[in-house]
Amino acid sequence: MKKPTAYVFLAVLSVLMIYPLVWLFFASFKENSEIFGSLSLFPKTLSFEPFIKGWQGAGRVNYSHFFLNTLYLVVPTVLFTIISSVLVAYGFSRFEFIFKKFLFTLMISTLMLPKAVLIIPKFILFRNLEWLNTYWPFIVPAIFAANPFFIFMMVQFFRGIPRELDESAHLDGCNSFAILYRILIPLCKPAIVSIGIFQFIWTWNDFFNTLIYINSVSKFTVSLGLKMSIDTVAEVSWNQVMAMSMVAIVPSIVIFFLAQKYFVEGIATSGLKG
């Protein structure tokens, strides 16, 4: 495919991919009756009322509360995921210990497990631990590196870093943790940022797991708040739902574009090295 043709194809494809977001943006400024009653992309009158009324939420809980709840859930989950994944990957990539290959194979094999298989066992476990209606079902697994995808990603990155750097640091008096902190982590910044972006977006947008484990409105996240906005009224104010949906995706978009350079470098490098 020649370059001009490829550019045209990619341009058309990008428009098709981004059009739903563009429609969502303009629909959030429309009147409720205009959203499905007009084929025009642009609103007849620009109104910020959907954002103002939508932010008030439903009942006594507004979206300020939903956003704070989401941050309480997302921030520790992302931080603990990064820390635990780096430590476990460091162990697999730099140390020799008994049953290393078996444990690594076992860890990788969990990637093949369908998420549906784990729902009931995890729910029973967290219920017995009395963690339902709390954020512990999300935070505690992050502490113990429960996501094998991130571990494998970091292992691939560590394997691409020459061991001679570790040996040189060891001769200079660095112990294992000093080598990790002073030598390897600065070199792994792209991969670490990639893990943070992935985990942030997945946890921020998570609806299914929060629906299962959280049942109190006061602890609802943004995704559950959006669903509640639809369920609590007989006639849905879709312009308000669109407005809050638009606000809800802004943090993920901002985080991605701020760290896009490291994200692309981390994915490319971890995929090529091994």
From TrEMBL:
Per UniProt, what is the membrane topology? Multi-pass membrane protein
Kindly give the InterPro entries that the UniProt entry links to this protein.
Answer: MetI-like, MetI-like_sf
GO BP: any one term:
transmembrane transport
Task: Report the principal subcellular site.
Answer: membrane
Chain segments annotated as coiled-coil in the UniProt record = none
What the entry lists under PROSITE patterns is as follows: ABC_TM1 (PS50928)
UniProt record similarity statement: Belongs to the binding-protein-dependent transport system permease family.
Its protein name is Carbohydrate ABC transporter permease
Species, as recorded: Paenibacillus cremeus
Taxonomic lineage is: Bacteria, Bacillati, Bacillota, Bacilli, Bacillales
